[in-house]
Amino acid sequence: MKIRVLCAASAVVLGATAAAALPVATASAASSAHLEKSAVAAAATAPTPLPVGQSDGNLSSNALQTWQTDSTVWTLAYGNGVVYVGGQFLNARPPGAANGSTTGEVSRTYLAAFNSTTGALITSFDPVIAETGSQSSPGVYTLAVSPDGSTLYVGGLFNKVNGSYRDNLAAFNTSTGALTSWQPSAYGKVNAIAASPNGQEIYIGGGFNELGTSGSTAGIQTRNYAGAVDSSGNLLPWAPVLDNALTTIAVDPDDSQVLVGGYFGNINGVFQPGAGAVDPVNGTTNLPWGANIVPDDSSCSPPAVKTIVISNGVAYLGSEGTGGGCFDGDFAVSLSSSGDSLVWQNACLGATQSLVVINGYLFKGSHAHDCAYAPGGFPQVNNNSGGWVTHHLLDQSLTDGSLGHWTPNDDDTLLGPRAMATDGKQLFLGGDFENVNGKPQQGFAIFPAKPDSVYPSNPTTAPTVTSTSSGTDTVQFPAVSSADVGTLNYNIYRDGGKTPIATLTATSWPWALPVLTYQDKGLTPGSTHTYTYAATDTTHLSGQSPASASVTVASSSPALSYNQTVLSNSPSFFWQLNDTGGTANDASPNNVDGTYTGGTTQGAAGPLTGSTATSFDGQSGNVYAQTAVNGPQAFSVEGWFKTTTNTGGKLIGFGNSQTGLSSNYDRHIYMMNDGQLVFGVWNNATETIETPNTYNDGQWHYVVATYNGTNMALYVDGELIGTNTSSSAQSYTGYWRVGGDNLNGWNLDPWGSNSQGTTQPNTYYFNGTIADVAVYPTSLTAAQVQAHFAAALVQGG
């Protein structure tokens, strides 16, 4: 369960009972430019979940217990079964030793090597790197292994290696560990080294102003922030013109371009903040980049791109950001000789430091604390000990950047894990952390491939059980999550039994837990039962949940059908959305018909057996009332929906325009990017109720929002989720609308906006299916809401 910090003055009161899912289960004033930009944002659905028990990239979230360092690791490189580790440490420490322990320590100054499988210290590799001058932060800041695996290139701030003079650059023979004769000098810190595909060009970036090898033909020449030498150390002509430090370099595997990232604002005199691509020979020709590639805001400094990795023709770039509100997420760029173009941006806040691609997934190191603007992302949540809950380790889809299910954590005290590398199957991690997953592991860690011993979390919430139809118990409970498996099975047990009576399947994240429902049928009326559940990834079974309260099985079923029950409560209108023409016919006697717009598709399967519904495209699809009414000061809004969207949108609401975006709008139910629902009215501020659980799980859900002029309530699947108070709702004449309308000003994120002008939710229009929308002139009681849901359960399909 999570509760975000709201900007509005009023608080949310969460109901004590979890919500459920059906079984098989002003804000009024805003600039038109911003509204249009937000409204046309493309809707998206979450990537297809992996099968039960499979993890993203087949990577374990359980780090090995390996040798470690006694201070920060800034860089990693892999080659021939060895992980090379560079940083500001002075010693290597044995596995399991806590921070501060010196027992078993072995001296390693700024550079060490570990076995990539076991994490054991390689004792034969023991270079002594030193800075005997006046540099205040000596260390190794970048490593690269040559394409043939024979040479380890080292850069940073130092002037001696094994007693020999080396000016911030050095190289080692990987077979013998010996220092080679390669000795170009960089007059300033070296942050990045990358070799060309054939290993003949060594591209170098940092904070230096001269580069080259003394005594060579080209000698040492001016190179501000970037330059290149060959494998013999001779200076090459590659010299892009930058106006600030370079922090990362990546060479396209086809050798057509060199990507650079850093703190600069211009490349070769062209405004291209933070990142770009240049030719691999002279570096003075910029490759065409789409104008929208690098996230930029005039109020922010360049976005400080800290990491670039390339996989299958796409570059993935991570930005540290340069201040509050400035872009510090990651983005993907498709590489092409005709010009590079943006694929996606992920606007998580949290200073991205490191990226690596493993088995079709992007893994990220950061201190992500607010991903509300990202598809499917989590909102910012206060930490009880101060600050915010942060996620230092995450993974993302290569297709759209949406967040995956790999969620181990460490305790980086600054910006996040500084380095990542891989052998294609494992993830090697470096940073300033002292613990990983709560266990001592400083500076360096290895996350191996699956299988592992990671269990789903133990359920802590007892199921909610009701019996509203003869011989049937309805069991509802929230999902749990695993640190590396997204899709789990849930075994349901009756009366303390050890054998499951049913198994359900659901996909979850730690911040997005759907709610499952099971109907236990064929029971003896009058008998009593309790229920528990447990989660499994098919290999590891969690503990069982607390037992539900005992429930007595009903001996009768609702007398009225769902439609009859709705009409018995005298709605102002009832749009079943099962039409075949352009009119949404009112099933009530009030003849308040609606009109379908483009972007709607009729005839989708509905929530009840044999019923149909309407699908909405998430971009323009709408049904609007044909007649304007005064905004009611007492009302209930009711409907059914099904979606897998990860970009949110408005389901039902009231606005002063029939089409387009209203300038006055409230009395609405909308979905956030992560699948949480919000009910809100406007009373000179947003007055809202927000669900703690998520409902974009591809199942049908029943939602009701009520307001009686003072009290607000939100129900999902028959259960009260939360309450709030508001002395009034905004007064204006308008139209009821289904499928989308303005939400500008209803962003519940504590930052209120981000540097890219991204809206939260990303789209104001809903991508999913909606059915049986009713609006009432009164506030339905909890008993009436439960009666509606009970009638639906009898007809559920």
Account of the protein in words:
This protein is mainly beta and 797 residues long. 4% of the residues lie in helices and 37% in strands. It is built from three helices and 61 strands. The strands form 17 sheets. Strands 1, 45, 48, 49, 52, 57, 58, 59 and 61 form a nine-stranded antiparallel sheet that branches. Strands 46, 47, 50, 51, 53, 54, 55, 56 and 60 form a nine-stranded antiparallel sheet that branches. A four-stranded antiparallel sheet has the order 25-26-27-28, with no helix packed on it. The radius of gyration is 29 Å and the shape is elongated. The protein starts with 12 loop residues before the first strand and ends with a helix.
